[in-house]
Amino acid sequence: xxxxxxxxxxxxxxxxxxxxxxxxxxxxxxxxxxxxxxxxxxxxxxxxxxxxxxxxxxxxxxxxxxxxxxxxxxxxxxxxxxxxxxxxxxxxxxxx
Length: 96
Fold this sequence. Notes:
By secondary structure, the chain is an alpha+beta fold. The protein has one domain: RRM (RNA recognition motif) domain (Alpha-Beta Plaits, 2-Layer Sandwich). 27% of the residues lie in helices and 36% in strands. The protein is built from three helices and six strands. The protein has helices at residues 4-7, 15-24, 37-48; strands spanning 8-11, 26-31, 52-60, 64-67, 70-73, 77-84. The longest helix has 12 residues, at 37-48. It is globular and about 50 Å long. The termini are far apart.
């Protein structure tokens, strides 16, 4: 499909994500809307040098916001929860 750096947009660092990482060795990413589970798995394995066991994806609807009288809608995006093999981790999460 695309370059691997275009599939994985950014990591999502939240309290729920931190709990998933510690309990089940899962990492959350914002990914390209047109990417499928196989492409996400390949991208994570190539970019971070880890083995992926499972990928779960969700389409997130953008929230409706207001600025004074004017309303607008944030962009829709896709979220992927990636389960890593036990004993492996992704380096940029170690300092968080």
